[in-house]
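Thread title: Can someone regenerate the structure for this chain?

I was given the following input by a collaborator and told the matching structure tokens would be attached. They weren't. Posting the sequence so someone can regenerate them.
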Amino acid sequence: MATILLLHSALGLRPGVHSFAELLRGRGHEVEVPDFYEGHVFDGEREGIAHRDAHPEYFETVRELAATMPPETVLAGFSLGAFFAQRLAARRPRAGAAILLHSVAAPRHEWSGVPVQVHRHEDDPWIAPPDVTTLGAAVEASGAPFEDHVTPGRGHLFTDPDLPGYDAAVTAATVERIDAFLR
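Best answer:
Regenerated them for you:
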């Protein structure tokens, strides 16, 4: 089983992040869920993003935590957390994988060789499809596998049961795909 560092979104460490971590633990994975927002939780994107913008040190906090974990740790996250996981994986070639839920960025440098799995809506206001294509090409050029799982429709954060866009069936399929990818 894998050791997973699961990073929350700009909304903070909400109960839905813990619920998702429990689903992965139920598959036998060890999941670390840090609260890099130090207890701050938000219901709206605007407030959460404003908080993130006021604290640029949060990525450094996450980077330092990741450095204490085994090199083969899987780096995963939701939205902002996925952005952080992708940045970490780009410089951590021994990471087990990068699991990017609800966020993808075009890589800034040559990819590290870490396998990547993406989970997103077909129309997500926070994801530019060309960035997915660019990341996929970079990952595959590095010799690593790349999977892009696209849920039809429009939305963001479909894995959080406390948010309006939650989809239980898609969340279950997402956990199944992550588990299969990590095995």
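The two ends are 7 Å apart (CA to CA).
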